[in-house]
Every structure is written in C-alpha cells, then in structure tokens.
Fold:
Amino acid sequence: MIQEFFDSIEDPKRPLLGPNYWLIEKVGLILPKNLISKILYLMCHEFVSAFVLTQYIEVYMVRSDLDLILTNLTVSVNSFICVVKANAFIYWQNDWKEVLKYITEIDKSERGTSDTTMKQIINSYTKYCRLLIKFYWVLLLTTCICVSGTPLIRYLSSSNYREAISNGTEPFPHIFSSWVPFDKFSSPGCWITVCIHIFCCAYGATMTAAYDSMILVIMIFFEGSLKLLRHKCKKMFGSNGLGVTDEQAKITLRELYTTHTLMLK
Structure:
C-alpha cells in the first residue's frame, strides 16, 4: 500500500523531485495561484505560528517550576524550528522555485544520456532519494500518531488515572502545553484544545517531512551532480584511447564550465 501511494505521486515532469514537490504543494510551502486557496494556506501557517507563541507564554506562566519548564521547552523549541522553516520557505519562495526548476531541468537533461556510467550514477541517487523519503515520511507519520495518541493511551491504560481525572485530582491530559484564553481542563474548552493540538501536531509533522526531505534530496542531487561532472571531466579529451577535435574539446569545456557555474550559483 505504501509503495502504491509513492508510485501514485510520481511526476514524469519531475523525475527526481516528483514526490517532494507533490508534498510541498499539498502542505502549502509552494502557495497556489488561486487567491482564496493562498489566503487559506497563509491563515493556517500563521495560526500555527501563533500557537507556538502560546507555548512560550505557557513556559513563562510556569516559570517557577523548573522541571515543567524543561519539559515544555523540549517540545516548544521543536515547534519554533518547524514554523521558522515553513515561514522562511514561504518568504523566499521565488528563490526556492528557481532552485527546484534548475534541479529539474538539469536532472531531465542528464537522464537523456546514453553513457552507461552516467545512467548508473543517476539511477543510484534516484533510488537512494526514494528510499530516504519513504522511510522519513513513515517515521514522521508514526511520530505524529504516537505523540497525538499518548494522552489517550495513558487514559485508557489506567483505571486509577481515569478515576483521578473524573474526581478532579488529576488535570485533563493534553498533547502539548500551551496557553489558551479559556479553561482548558474542563468541557468544552478541553476538547477545543485537543482539536487545536491534533491539528498543530499534524501540521508540524507534514511541514517537517516536506521541508527536511526536500533539503536532503537537494543535497543528494548535488552530490550526484558532482559525480557526473567528474565523469564528464575524465572524458573531456576523449575515451578508450580515442581523441577529440579542438572544436569538440572547446564545446565540452564550455558545457562543463556552464554546469559548474550554475551549481555554484
């Protein structure tokens, strides 16, 4: 089932970045052209950014309890990093689009080669990228489910704990520690808080999956490009004992220089 899902999100127009581009579009890192959809995505991004702010407000409110502060910070720091990644990607979206467009164009042109060694290099880094995003996305999905379900598992696993919550000796369990302008330990405020936490947890997991896997694939691509560049340099003046003309050498040298310049950019 997992393999079928990954096969369904492959994109012939983006042989390397297909699954990654699909995810960053779905989560709104690449904003849609439709104005209403764009506004809705931006509202979601900024809602979660505001939620992270409430986590730090909660840290300030429990500042007298060092153990609770340290527990809260382990989550709130990760949340802060997540929203910084998302907002930075959106803010510099045009630059990211240029990078992704360059990678796609270069990757597609390289795949048209008849050189056996180059094909092996391309197939190798493509396969590695697919395995990486598959395991990384499954890992983050599992993490999201476990984090969201921890309070429920704790509640169901202990009758004493359920009784303590019922009689008020234990507070209502929440996924995250955050401040809200209403009572989050009694109904309906507790259930509103739970819904907010589940949404923010899912958002954080998908954003991290989209951003981190894209960065990893980009780095793997450049490693593969350097291997291809090295192979081309070996063949610059011919191969198998066969030389090349001055004109062919100039053309090859010009192509290598252009490729190297674009990679540096």
Remarks:
- The chain has a mean pLDDT of 85.
- The two ends are 40 Å apart (CA to CA).
